[in-house]
Amino acid sequence: MQLCLDAQSRFEAAGIADAYNDATRLFLHALEQSLGKRVPRHQLAQHLKQQAPAELSTAFASMVAARAARQPVSQIIGRRAFWEHEFQVTRETLDPRPETETLVEAALARPWQSVLDMGTGTGAILISLLAARPDATGQGTDISTAALDVARANAAKIGVTATFTRADWYAGVEGRFDLIVSNPPYIALDEMAGLAPEVRDWEQASALTDGGDGLAAYRAIAAGARAHLAPGGSVLVEIGASQAPAVSELFAAQGAVTDVLRDLDGRNRVISAVFPAK
């Protein structure tokens, strides 16, 4: 018990908002490493009453130090829950976030048989879509070979068949798709300093920002969308809360009918761009 209380106090001193839950998640992971199996959360209390073995205390202390340095819990334990699965995460990938599930939900509400996920990272979006629609085909692209390795491992673990290709947006992509999805780097360079340390200091910068105004990826995606979509195809892209007008305009200029989708907190989160068949 004292181990978790001490960790919680240390996290609170470091300015971590959800100190109790973080301490609990890390202790459960340390238990998993010590016992060789996962421990359900409801069994935590009985383990906290017991004297912690030395190897458990050592492993937990290392995790606590990492979290106090503001490393995200998901990176420390190496996984993050998203939609219906758990995904391996590393410092080379963007940590899948609950708000991105808005995009997955929107995609699964429309008809498609082929999907392209640009800037796939962990593969969380693409794999979630293909797991829910096993008769469909999908390709994930990323400029990072390390991220593609993570995505391939996640697909294999979850049992999804997908193609993963190194590409710089459309450069390296062949064929046409019913649906294009992306959660691209959309944070403007001048906004990076204001991010939480867990994001700014620990996540892959190239997955967060384009080094400019945060709209470069949308310009590229919108400009090449019609050439890579099947007739009547559509695009779904995640956006920052203030970017809806600018991103909608980029797709409308290419002939798309656009709509803004909100996440569960009511924030503008996804732009839907449907390209009518000519």
UniProtKB/TrEMBL annotation:
SUPFAM superfamilies named among the record's database cross-references: S-adenosyl-L-methionine-dependent methyltransferases (SSF53335)
EC nos: 2.1.1.297
Cross-referenced CDD domains: AdoMet_MTases
Short name of one Pfam family: MTS
Chemical reaction(s) catalysed: L-glutaminyl-[peptide chain release factor] + S-adenosyl-L-methionine = N(5)-methyl-L-glutaminyl-[peptide chain release factor] + S-adenosyl-L-homocysteine + H(+)
Binding site for substrate: 183-186
Known role: Methylates the class 1 translation termination release factors RF1/PrfA and RF2/PrfB on the glutamine residue of the universally conserved GGQ motif.
Protein name: Release factor glutamine methyltransferase
Lineage: Bacteria, Pseudomonadati, Pseudomonadota, Alphaproteobacteria, Rhodobacterales
